[in-house]
Amino acid sequence: VTTFRWLWQRVLWLIAWLWRPSRSDADKALGPTPPPKPVAPRYKLIQVSDDPDVLAPHTVYAVGEGSHLWHVVMECPCGCGDTVALNVLPDDSPRWSLRDEPEGPTLIPSVWRTTGCRSHYILRRGRVLWCGSNGQRAAELFAQ
Ligand SMILES: [Zn+2]
Questions:
Q1: How far is the CA of 37 from the centre of ligand 1 (A)?
Q2: Could you report the average pLDDT of every consecutive run of 10 residues in the chain (144 residues)?
Q3: What is the distance in A from the centroid of ligand 1 to the CA of 113?
Q4: What is the pTM of this model?
Q5: How many angstroms separate the first and last alpha carbons of the chain?
């Protein structure tokens, strides 16, 4: 009996092996490879001595002279077209701290607009991280 059971298991194993999905079947099951999602470019930091007339997308302008910065200007990342100006002077309030990191600029704390689109986001190493309830909507707009 034992030998018969062993043989039967071998037969079942052989059938399973013969019916195993081939590599190409597995590839077909996955479907065509989707195109890579476009990744929003990182923000870059540019120092200027005057407020720029036209703001380029994905650009943070540090307005000042030499190491003395007055404020930071950027286009609102949600796509509403508004200009966001943030004070970086240490004696004024509210104030933001701007860090020029190799990957891109970081602004601390988060930016929470009290007017217009009311976007709430963090700029960290050149990437916008959305916060709050309108974050999802803004993130969708940002991805377009
Ligand atoms: Zn906005």
A1: 23
A2: 84 89 69 74 95 95 94 95 95 94 95 93 94 59 48
A3: 8
A4: 0.67
A5: 68
